[in-house]
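User: Run a structure prediction on this.
Assistant: Running it now.
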Amino acid sequence: MTYSEENYLKAIYHLSLFQKKGVNTNAIAKMIDSKASSVTDMIKKLAEKNLVKYQKYQGVSLTAEGLLEAKMIVRKHRLWEVFLVEKLDFSWDEVHDVAEELEHINSEKLINKLDAFLGFPTEDPHGDPIPNAKGEIKKMDKKLLSELKLNQKSICVGVKDSSSNFLKYLDKQQIALGSTIEIMEKESFDASLIVLVNGNEMNISHKIASNLYVKTV
């Protein structure tokens, strides 16, 4: 496949995680930053390769073959992110763009050896699951911090927003994967929170709480 085809498959995969029905072509165009006409042309090419299905008014969905291909692209991307952070000392807000380039290296042997070299990680530096060589994904019981009740204790296990700006903000607040978070107060006016992060009290907006994945303890 071409780099462009791989990017489309990955985009459809990510969008399908939040939609029960087929993915809207306009949503694909927005994620890929492309014109709707270009998306339509690419969908036809992918359909000819039996990687996607398209039905008018029902959107685009991945075939079994397309789903596996998409998972393998995601697998490569997230393994490279782990490598960059753990072995080359990149920060978690720096790795996405580099991994976007590395994910197109087409060597199954290399990726499997990379996986073994890293100790078969199940999550990337942002807490997102890494598909194994068969496309299997370990499920994690997680919620958004904004969904927790008063006095609930939790551990940060991921981020919904993996943008560089958000990750840098978390670094400033000393919030990272593994941080303990306990909700002390909830503001009824704007749903902001007063929390204890690793024992330190701080205010967190509803927007921040809606982008932090946690696991209750």
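The beta strands are 52-55, 59-62, 143-144, 153-159, 180-186, 193-197, 200-204, 212-216.
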